Amino acid sequence: MRDKLEQIKRKAMEAMDSLNNLDQLEEFRVKTLGKKGELTLVLREMGKLPPEERPVIGQLANEIRSYLENELSKKTAELKNAALEKRLAEEAIDVTVPGKVPALGKLHPVTKVLNELKDIFLGMGFDVAEGPEVEWDSYNFEALNIPKNHPARDVQDTFYINENILLRTHTSPVQIRTMLKKKPPIKVICPGRVYRSDAIDATHSPIFHQIEGLVVDKNITMGDLKGVLDVFAKQVFGPETKTKFRPHHFPFTEPSAEVDVTCAICHGSGCRVCSYTGWIEILGAGMVHPKVLAYCGIDPQEYSGFAFGMGLDRITNLKYGIDDIRLLFENDIRFLKQF
Amino acid sequence: MLMPINWVKDYVEIDMDIRELADKLTMTGSKVEEVITLRENISNVVVGRIISVEQHPNADKLVVCNVDVGTEVIQIVTGASNVAPGQLVPVALHGAKLPGGVTIKKGKLRGVESHGMMCSGEELELKDSDYPGAEVDGILILQEEYPLGMDIKEALDLNGQVVDLEITSNRPDCLSMVGMAREIAVSTGKSWRMPKIDVMPSIGNVKDELQVVVENPDLCPRYIARIVKDVKIGPSPQWMRRRLAAAGIRPINNIVDITNYVMLELGQPMHAFDYDKIEGRKIVVRTAKPGESIVTLDDKQRSLTPDMLVIADASKPIAVAGVMGGANSEISADTKHIVFESALFNGTSVRLTSKALGLRSESSSRFEKGLDINMTLTAIDRAVQLVQELGAGTVVEGRIDVLNASTDNRKLTAKWNRINQLLGLNLTADEIADILNDLGLETSVDGESITTLVPTYRNDIEGEADLAEEVARIYGYDRIPMTLMEGSAAKGIRTENQKLVDSIKLALTGMGMYEVITYSFTSPRVYESIGITVDMVPETVRIANPLGEDQSIMRTTLMPNILEVLSRNYNRRIESCSIFEINPVFLPKALPLTDLPDEVLTLAMGEYGDGVDFYTLKGKIEALISLLGLSKRTDYQKAVHPALHPGRTAEVLVDGKSAGIFGEVHPRTAENYELNTRVIMAELNLQALLENADTVRKYKALPKYPAVTRDLAFIVEKRIQAAQILDLICKGGGNILEEVSLFDIYEGSQIPEGCKSMAYSLTYRASDRTLTDDEVNRAHQRIIGLLEEELNARLR
Ligand SMILES: [Zn+2]
After folding, report:
1. Quick one: A22 and A53 in the same domain?
2. Cα separation values, B576 from A85, B78, B615, B663, Å
3. Which end of chain B is more exposed for a tag (fewer CB within 10 A), N or C?
4. Same domain, A127 and A271
5. Domain for residue A104, yes or no?
6. Listed residue (A17, A53, A278, A111) closest to B513, CA to CA
């Protein structure tokens, strides 16, 4: 019996060496260790042994079983590993073949830039105000210290609907509406489309986009205006950007300024974009005219404020190096894809 | 405005580089557009004296001259016939540069050496107005003595720089040499002076020769006239003509040049009438009579209306006040006596007249900004002084001065510290007063107040804020420290709608769509192009003064714009295109417009290309509806729109109310837009969707019990809509039916003619227990029963 067991073990060891797939291995396991396997069959005959030999043989049989099981599982692991290695090798692909790109659209470049500017001003505590594009003459002009027959009206080239209604020439009427509705402190930006009867060419469009800002509170100074626009310019055009405030005239602000920023292309050394001046004019700004505050029922002796405005299309063009404003309204997909 | 430096130097000292001055002026509010250097294209041309002239040995038409150019005597060959020994001429030396990019080099002419070139006026680009005789054929012979070797530009006073300024509309006082001298003085810390004006005692009395009546004193607060007799019309002297030309005004004759010179020097427009052409020796300042007209100096007939102010004689208009003189009283070569006019006209009146006539002049553009009531007097005296200096006529003693307004300086009181508060500065009262005094605003300090006497040339200064601007620009905008007001660290807030629109735009781009922006005015004809018949065209907001008929109405639909963009891309051979626009449409409440129109925020979408069909766009709309939390409240129903395919159009209903329409574009509409492909388009009332949007989300526990999934396939008639089937399934399934999805629609073999097979996957689940087979079977059978009963469906 001892010999039989030893023989099973020896035979099993020899057989195992020649096995090279998982199916054969399983077959072998059943044949050797299964319920009707050789080892089991041998053990069934244990009853025929004298009682004193049974424990000895039993222990031997268990040793052989566990030895074989151990060997078997080692072998199984080896084979599984080999099979996996083989599969991985077979499944290798050309990783340089282009991916399957999901269709993804884009926001219009003007919207992208607007979002960027909005985020900057939201970050400085400005809310976003909106208003109608077809607007009262009184909000677009009179409230802004531009009475009927004021020369500034010629400059604005206004589209009129009738005597009292027009297409807003700037988003300033939104400032007026805000001041009429809400008492200071006021801190808003007013983005939107505006209209001027310019013929269409590379730098003019009768419809374009503006973003204006308004702050009214006690103790608002021109220093605050400079500070806010300087922060703004650095965020849009980079931390090295400098701002220059030049005196100017607008009917609705006093003092008024035009604001230049250092040319983002040449960083101030002069290039074609900045006409070799190193500066690019991008903003009009000033302290809100006391007449404008008074029109809106805000006491100019108690409150002061500043306002500023800029052309969104112009900033978009500057930012992306677009040389023709018409491209913004043509909506060629090959153009829109670039932003 | 063009400011010749040599001219303005008469009134203020300038001892710095002109570019530095230009920067200073820009920073104090007189923006310099450009610094122009005159005659930059001439160099190395000097004064020389011809010593000898001899015949060229080899050429009949050439002569050989010896010319003394100061440092040496050089030999020059010329073809000019007007040269003679002793003459002074301009000589271009070896290496000289002439206008037109010409460089002079020494060389041989027909075998004889020539070391330079004598120049004609034309070669130096000189006109008679630059130097008398400059336009004569041949070499320019100089009439006066100059040192030999002197640079010709210096000798003939051709040098100089001109500064081109952009003067803002509130500062008409800067539109003159003395006005700019004042600005230069304050900007550079110098002093400035007015020209010295003395009129020599003269003959007669103007009041015996002329009568002036001002009928509309509100439109003409001041009118001054003086008379000059026995004028000698001729060219004005070279210095005057050169200054006018440098300032951009063409010299004409001495009298006209004097009026222009005074205007440029002092900022006061002037006019000269031919005295003998003034009927009745009477000037009447009045509004035009109905039917009157005048031929202006530019030889154009102008019809006048009764709101226009004119200068008339006893019977007819002889000038349009402040705008332009009439041909009927123009100064001519035969003029014997003249009347000078120096007046103040109402700015608005001049502006409206000039606009109505389509006639802008140097004069009108100054008057319309509002001029100085005191300068009228200074200017007319300056004019007659120049007449005397130029010996151009005999000035008649006295002036007629019709004055109907105050000539006093205005008193303005302000709290000086309010100026600091506005600017963010800490100036003392004296520092503020000093700046204002330097500007000619006579200012005194009294405790917390300052009192300023505002001169009549500064009509723009009305209050504290204006004083603050004066202080700021002279102190320097760049010296105001940058600060950030309180609350700058707080974050701003977008409204819910703004947030939603932003997320809708992002969602749509995530679905492969490109955002477009198009014009919001359009042609009234677009309705026709999208199949809307004349009787169906909606009321529109019409622009009174459009750029053209094609851009004359505010759009009431974005569909034509979407089609136009798709068409443009399609015809540029772009294979596929998927776009959207979010912008308002403009719907009048009533016409004629008495209230602002409704501006309804609208979302339009459109696409064409491989794989694009009705359902691809519908899917995007459904995703959008889901984003807005409206899926359960939204239905889609078959609809009709003239621009869309009658069998492939659906209306979007939120709570049963229309929120937009979409579908395949009607082949006729597509053809109108040259779109030879299937196009799907939608127009949704975004305003309504936003108003209904339900974006409040609440967590619902994940299901604890298993679901049971059953498929269901059946055959129904083709006309049966999915929405009807869905209704019945939901009804039959009851509350244990969790989800229904349609996964196949099939027509063709094995399906009877006129029918279709529909296959659904149904998910059953209860939230509080594991469903039994029996429960599910009962619900499933109920559904089948309903479908068979109501729709005649047959199970497959
Ligand atoms: Zn540059």
Report:
1. yes
2. 44, 74, 16, 17
3. C
4. yes
5. no
6. A111
Best of A158, A162, A198, A222 to mutate (most B CBs within 10 Å, chain B): A222
Same domain, A130 and A84: no
- Is some CB atom of chain B closer than 8 A to the CB atom of A221? yes
Q: Is residue A99 part of a domain?
A: no
The helix/strand count (H/E) of chain B reads as: 21, 39
Which phi and psi angles does B531 have, rounded to 5°?
80, 10
Question: Between the CA atoms of A186, A192, A196 and A198, what dihedral angle is there, to the nearest 10 degrees?
Answer: 140
pLDDT in tens, B384-408: 999 999 999 999 999 999 999 999 9
Distance B5 CA to ligand 1 centre (A): 29
B743 touches chain A (CB under 8 A): no
Q: Which domain holds residue A198?
A: 109-336
Q: Where are the beta strands (DSSP E) in B486-633?
A: 514-515, 521-522, 553-554, 577-587, 598-608
Q: Which residue is closest to A191 within chain B, CA to CA? A: B498
* Pair A42, A162 in one domain: no
Residue ranges in B141-253 assigned as alpha helix (H) = 152-155, 177-188, 206-209, 238-246
The chain-wide mean pLDDT, for chain A, equals 91
Q: Which residue of B has its CA nearest to A303?
A: B422
* Contact status of A257 with chain B (Cβ, < 8 Å): yes
For residue B538, what is the DSSP state? P
Choose from A232, A254, A329 for mutation: most chain B CBs within 10 A: A254
Q: What angle do CA A153, A157, A161 make, to 5 degrees?
A: 95
Give the closest of B484, B517, B544 to A224, CB-based: B484
The answer to whether the peptide bond before residue B646 is cis (omega within 30 degrees of 0) is no
Q: Cβ distance B264 to B364 under 8 Å?
A: no
Q: What is the pLDDT of residues B166-203, one digit of tens each?
A: 999 999 999 999 999 999 999 999 999 999 999 998 88
Spatial contact of B604 and B516, defined as CB atoms under 8 Å apart: no
> Is A254's CB within 8 Å of B543's CB?
no
Cβ-defined contact of B171 to A249 (cutoff 8 Å): yes
CB proximity A219 to B under 8 Å: yes
Task: Tell me, in angstroms, the distance from the centre of ligand 1 to residue A271's CA.
Answer: 4
Structure tokens at B112: 């004889």
Separation of CA A204 and ligand 1 centre (Å) = 21
* φ and ψ of A114, to 5 deg: -60, -45
| A156 pLDDT tier (thresholds 50, 70, 90) | low
Residue B642, Cβ density class (10 Å: 0-12 exposed, 13-18 middle, ≥19 buried):
middle
| A299 SS3 class | coil
Q: Answer whether residue A83 is part of any domain.
A: yes
Q: Give the angle B619-B621-B626 at the CA atoms, nearest 5°.
A: 95
Query: How many domains is chain A built from?
Result: 2
For B388, the token pair is 């005397």
Q: Which residues of B touch A245 (CB under 8 A)?
A: 477-478, 480
Distance from C-alpha of A246 to C-alpha of A251, rounded to nearest angstrom: 16
Confirm whether A102 is domain-assigned. no
Residues A129 and A60 occupy one common structural domain: no
A265 and A177 fall within a common domain: yes
Element (H, E) at B449: strand B449-454
What pLDDT is stored for residue B155 in this prediction? 86
User: Mean pLDDT throughout B622-637?
Assistant: 95
Closest residue of chain A to B571, computed from CA coordinates? A332
Q: Does A107 sit within 8 Å of B492, measured CB to CB? A: no
Omega of the bond leading into A239 within 30 degrees of 0 (cis): no
Residue A263 Cα to ligand 1 middle (Å): 4
User: Burial, A328: exposed, middle or buried (Cβ in 10 Å; 0-12, 13-18, 19+)?
Assistant: buried
